[in-house]
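#structure-requests
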Amino acid sequence: GGSFKLSYYNEYKSYLSMESTKRRRLYSNEDLLPKDDETKGSHIKEESTELILKTEKDDIENHSEYTKNMPDSKVEVKQEFSDDSDEEMKPQLKSGFSESELKYKSRNCPYLDTIQRAILDFDFEKLCSVSLSNLNVYACLICGKYFQGRGRTTHAYTHSVHENHHVFLNLKTLKAYCLPDNYEIIDATLEDIKYVLKPTFTKEEIVSMRFAHKVCRALDGTSYYQGIQGLNNIKANDYMNVILMSLCHVCPLREFFLDERNYDNVKLPPGSIMFPLIQRFGDLMRKLWNPRNFRSHISPHEMLQAVVLCSKKRFQFTKQGDPIPFLSWLLNSLHYTLTGGKIKKSSVVFDTFQGKMKVHTRKVPPPGERGVGKEYETTTTTSPFLYLMLNLPPAPLFTEDGDHNIIPQVLSRSISLKIIEYTYLKNSIGT
């Protein structure tokens, strides 16, 4: 049977090894060669070498012919992987489990009940808390900290051993792993965490946002309207928050940035540092309109870091600034990035915000003169704009107790009535 063939195969293998060793010793012994004839000795050496190679070749062929009829046996394959590498690999080779054990552990991880959803916060930069690297970063789903890698010499592996935290999530691939056993966790209960990290929307969901705002409930039980959430004031970034919140509610801009495929393949000139701006703005837009957030407020930390980097520290969140220059810079920067540095090319920003204004200019004559001549003729020029200034109501003359002015309460429609009436008149006339 099979046991007899296997024992015979082992004897035959040892015989081949022994015979090969004997032949090597026999033909490689220089004492057997005549010392007085170097030419003859070299000729014998060449013949002996050819004989050895031919004999070993025959042994290999005989061995292959014999093993064709042998029963199937397990072949142990050793493969080494770098501990710091995060490449896709066979899990049974990396974790040390068999395929059946791996499937069972992947779908029955005993550490899923240790996840602390209440302390998870994905609003900050995806950097390792130890090495400050952004490569192969994993989030510990128990304490919420970020660590790099999952090999034996990485910070995530060390954290799992020292702190007894076992569930980690790759912030780029959205795959969950159990450390230090190092096997992938496949469980439907992790989908809510993955959705909070990277929200996605279908076309039907994006279109439905035009008509109604859905009431959502956070993990702590607080209710919020979809798209109407608080932006944290880290230090002095309130002048940025008001602009970001306003732009996130512009319908064409919102529908464009909710779908990441619209700007994922943008190509910029070499050396440009503007690409993180549209990435972070899109991430903020999706987080703000996420109906399944764990919290009812959002931290725009990543977006603010991108603004500081792309504006070369012109706008910072550590000191107060003017929102109007920030709005002008942000709209132009988004347009520049989306067009790949080609300013004259159209983008969703210019299609939404850009307009043209006719400016009529006439020189005022001095008192007592009629102002006749070419220099007093009215000239008309066309000027493009991205935003217009509105006339705010004047401050009241009377003050309240404490010498504070009474803040006038007026409707935004009444302030913009001048522009609205002009637009309506222009459309009705058709000019």
